[in-house]
Design a protein that fits this description.
The complex is a heterotrimer of chains A (313), B (256) and C (294). Chain A has 313 residues and is mainly α. Helices cover 77% and strands 1% of the residues of chain A. Chain A has a two-stranded antiparallel sheet with strand order 1-2. In chain A, helix 2 packs across helix 13 and helix 12 crosses helix 13. In chain B, the strands form 2 sheets. In chain B, strands 6-7-8-3-9-10 form a 6-stranded mixed beta sheet, sandwiched between helices. In chain B, strands 2-1-4-5 form a 4-stranded antiparallel beta sheet. Chain B is of the alpha/beta class and 256 residues long. In chain C, helix 2 runs parallel beside helix 4 and helix 3 packs antiparallel against helix 8. Chain C is globular, with a radius of gyration of 19 Å. The chains are: A mainly alpha (313), B alpha/beta (256), C mainly alpha (294).
Chain lengths: 313, 256, 294
């Protein structure tokens, strides 16, 4: 609502600049894959934030949607579909599953919802491991080897991130977004002012699950492989939580910042210390909860306000 | 509603409680209460603490489902409706402990009511105009861009009313909006309630500030231990021996 | 498969597991009861308890059971410290803040452990690890009997302590009604620190006992954490005595379910029970019983 114009312009400018990267650096595989994973995280972190940040329902179970999407794409692709055509279906399957999860669990108060989603996420992973006839079980599914170029994936992930951001921005400035904010702060008061809280929570859940599911599909085509322990992993779930929280819960730019930092740190530490980034993130999260609830976006906002007006162009 | 053959009656009666009972486990909070509330009047609801007044409001607003009995608003049965549906029908309740959306500004708080209440669904510009009007009416306009968490208690109480008004209620249920206010603030709030009534809104108010209830109300209902023990004009109620007994020793100044 | 022989042996196994489950969940229940905080770092302390037992074993050849008791004061202090330096500072904020803080702490603990001990399986082999005792015609591993016995003793002592000492009574009073406890002069702030210390100590204690039965890694504990939640939800969240009931329900459900389904699906039972219990009976099994009465 406030300052929507400059934010939108900045986002569009950033997207255009980033879209030019493959043209300039077509052969730079490292850069393109860095971009692909960062955008994939941006898309998901921003989507997760619609429910987690705007509505305040912290879910530790989004790997379930990511996995649903990944396997939907995998199976359709093996069935002869073109990968691009499978992404919307992957999103829809994830969205439908989010309804199955959300209708009962979103009635719970916040912390209990969080706990329940851990249960749902882990249950899905174990089920997927055991449904070996569909998912390939512990050996996973090998997918076709004929895939588009790295530049194509880079651009596709950028489009996903841009769409996700646009959706979140639209939600935030809409009547729907106002309702989500109100119910986050006081559900009973929101309901008594006419906000259909149950419907809104589920809509937010479905919307974000759709995006995360589609991202799962894109990821499966990129990797040409789907494995329950990877696409349904708890680490995938908590990555989204961390990205949004560290970037700035409930802010528009927070998850974007969070995702960029998250993947950069993860990529940097991956080779030397495989899970060390989670330690870094754990410490960061503690600091943020104690000192700056609005995360990196909050810090950036403070720095911005301290910048002399003349520099702000 | 006007086409309703029973319309003549529903124009007169805004709210009907028909043998409403609410039990919490073994505790009977509201027991077999039957009331008809006339439209565009101010009705005071009084009684000692724990008499079931707030529970009765919660039954009307849909926060709790009655154990027995029916609730009718404008002749339509709303028993078992969710609070948001009741609100959209035009029945809005303010909370005894004010619950502003702390991280939203005063204006945004009121906008929630305007965008979702019975006048809502239009959102956009019309809702904005409503908000401005309500902010002026409740004297909150100068504070429109302040975060609700930064308001004083009196301002929060006014915000609670403003938000409710923005939903364009036909029936407004006010739960202790005067409690904790200074005499000057009380005076302002009483004027505000009068102003709301002047707009044709039916008001039911729970209040412990007796002078104000007696001044404002066209009719006073008295609850004690969940039962309706008196119903009449302020003068009649204060003379009722059962009411005096219920209050005596608790707060004798009240019964005067 | 469904011979009486078989059913009895499954029953015995379930009973033994129930003891372990109860001790594993009690700490979580105490912390939740006193401060309404869901301790997501429970698994971290469980795992750390197991690794500290390994350290004692390697350094001094200390038996895991003695290690478990040594862990009690060590982790009580750790829990106290965590409460006073971290949890206390966010406890007045939204309930989700403390949940997230403890989740972050879990990440830290887990990854510090990974940095120190790596991700290889660790185990502690004692002289009695492979001993089995004949009982009712079955051969029962000694370690399982030991774990059950110790859990039973500790839970009994704990129950007595909560019922008969000042601090225990104060703690139970705070569980029931924090505000009222404060009004009658209980230092609820101190009780919270004690509860967090006690909960952490019990988590580590359970972790030590687990080393008698299983091998472990820094990832160890995640599934136990979820099971502990299931147990305290089944037991009624604020009902400390309900923990034993919850532990028994889960353990029997899991043990007998294996007769009907793949063993690898066993954990799904706990997760499904968790979600169902949260949704349909937030007051736990006890609530279902009282509801029947009213």
């Amino acid at each position: 609502m406030r300052a929507a114009r400059p934010a939108a312009l900045a986002a569009i400018a950033a997207a255009i600049l980033l879209a030019l990267v493959p043209v300039v650096a077509r052969g730079n595989i490292t850069l393109l894959s860095l971009g692909f994973f960062t955008f994939l995280y941006v898309a998901q972190g921003v989507a997760w934030n619609i429910l987690g940040g705007f509505a305040g329902y912290i879910s530790f179970g989004y790997a379930a949607f990511f996995g649903c999407g990944a396997y939907t794409t995998a199976l359709l692709w093996l069935g002869g579909w073109a990968p691009v055509a499978t992404y919307p279906v992957a999103g829809i399957v994830a969205a439908l599953f989010s309804l199955v999860v959300g209708v009962p669990t979103l009635r719970l108060a916040g912390p209990y919802f969080s706990i329940a989603t851990i249960g749902v996420g882990e249950a899905m992973r174990i089920l997927a491991l055991n449904l070996d006839r569909i998912t390939g079980g512990a050996s996973g599914l090998n997918l076709p080897t004929v895939v588009p170029s790295k530049a194509w994936f880079y651009t596709a992930a950028l489009v996903f991130a841009a769409v996700s951001f646009a959706v979140a921005a639209a939600v935030r400035s809409s009547r729907f977004g106002l309702g989500l904010q109100a119910l986050r702060m006081d559900q009973e008061a929101a309901e008594s002012l006419g906000v259909r809280t149950a419907l809104f929570k589920n809509l937010a859940h479905v919307l974000s699950a759709f995006i995360v599911g589609a991202c799962g599909g894109l990821y499966a085509t990129y990797l040409q492989f789907a494995h329950p322990d990877s696409v349904f992993s708890f680490t995938e779930s908590i990555s989204l939580v961390l990205i949004a929280l560290i970037g700035g819960l409930g802010t528009l730019w927070g998850p974007v910042l969070g995702a960029a930092v998250f993947y950069a740190v993860q990529d940097y530490l991956q080779t030397s210390y495989p899970t060390f980034h989670l330690l870094v993130y754990g410490v960061l999260l503690i600091l943020i909860l104690l000192f700056e609830p609005k995360g990196l976006a909050g810090v950036a906002g403070r720095l911005w306000r301290r910048t002399p007006l003349a520099w702000r162009a | 509603m006007a086409a309703d053959p029973a319309g003549v009656e529903s124009l007169m009666t805004a709210l009907t409680l028909d043998h409403v009972t609410k039990r919490f486990g073994g505790l009977v909070a509201v027991q077999d209460v039957t009331i008809e509330i006339a439209s565009a009047h101010i009705t005071g609801l009084i009684g000692p603490n724990g008499a079931g007044k707030t529970t009765l409001f919660r039954v009307i607003s849909g926060d709790v489902r009655p154990s027995a009995g029916r609730v009718l608003c404008f002749g339509r049965e709303t028993t078992g409706w969710s609070p948001h549906a009741v609100c959209r029908l035009g029945v809005c309740v303010t909370h005894q402990i004010v619950r502003p959306f702390g991280e939203l500004t005063v204006l945004e708080n009121v906008l929630v009511g305007a965008a979702f209440g019975s006048g809502g669904r239009t959102a956009g510009r019309a809702a904005r105009a409503d908000v401005e009007e309500v902010l002026d009416f409740t004297a909150l306009a100068p504070r429109r861009d302040v975060l609700a968490s930064a308001l004083t208690l009196a301002e929060r109480k006014r915000l609670e009313i403003a938000r409710a008004l923005a939903t364009r209620p036909s029936i407004l249920l006010l739960d202790e909006v005067l409690a904790g206010l200074t005499p000057a603030e009380t005076h302002q709030a009483v004027a505000l309630v009068r102003g709301i009534q002047a707009r044709g809104v039916t008001i039911v108010m729970i209040e412990h500030v007796m002078r104000a209830v007696m001044d404002l109300s066209d009719r006073v209902l008295v609850l004690n231990y969940g039962r309706l023990i008196a119903d009449g004009s302020p003068a009649e109620v204060t003379r009722n021996p059962e009411v005096i007994e219920a209050y005596l020793g608790r707060d004798s100044a009240v019964a005067q | 498969m469904f011979s009486a022989q078989n059913l009895i042996s499954v029953g015995i196994a379930a009973l033994l597991t129930a003891g372990l489950y109860a001790i594993m969940s009690y700490g979580l229940a105490i912390i939740y009861g006193v401060m309404k905080v869901i301790n997501l770092s429970h698994a971290g302390f469980l795992m750390l308890g197991a690794f500290m037992t390994l350290v004692y074993f390697q350094l001094w050849h200390l038996d895991p059971i003695l290690g478990a008791f040594l862990n009690l004061p060590v982790f009580f202090a750790a829990g106290w410290l965590v409460y006073t330096t971290l949890v206390r500072r966010v406890i007045t904020a939204l309930p989700i803040a403390s949940l997230l803080l403890l989740f972050a702490l879990w990440l830290v603990i887990q990854n510090v452990a990974l940095a120190i001990w790596g991700s290889d399986d660790q185990s502690i082999i004692t002289a009695y690890t492979y001993t089995a005792l004949p009982l009712l015609g079955f051969r029962i591993p000694l370690t399982r009997l030991l774990v059950f016995g110790i859990a039973l003793i500790v839970l009994t002592v704990l129950h007595y302590g909560l019922g008969h000492t000042y601090i225990g009574k104060a703690l139970r009073a705070t569980v029931q009604d924090r505000q009222a406890a404060l009004l009658v002069g209980i230092d609820t702030e101190k009780i919270s620190a004690v509860a967090f210390g006690l909960g952490t100590a019990l988590a580590a204690f359970a972790g030590s006992l687990l080393t008698l039965l299983f091998s472990f890694t820094p990832d160890f504990g995640g599934s136990f954490q979820l099971k502990s939640f299931t147990i305290i939800v089944l037991g009624g969240l604020e009902n400390l005595a309900g923990v034993t009931v919850g532990a028994a329900i889960l353990s029997f459900a899991e043990s007998f379910a294996v007769l009907f389904m793949r063993a690898s699906l066993q954990n799904v039972i706990a997760y499904a029970l968790l979600v169902i219990a949260l949704i349909v009976m937030p007051g736990g099994v006890a609530q279902l019983m009282t509801r029947g009465r009213s």
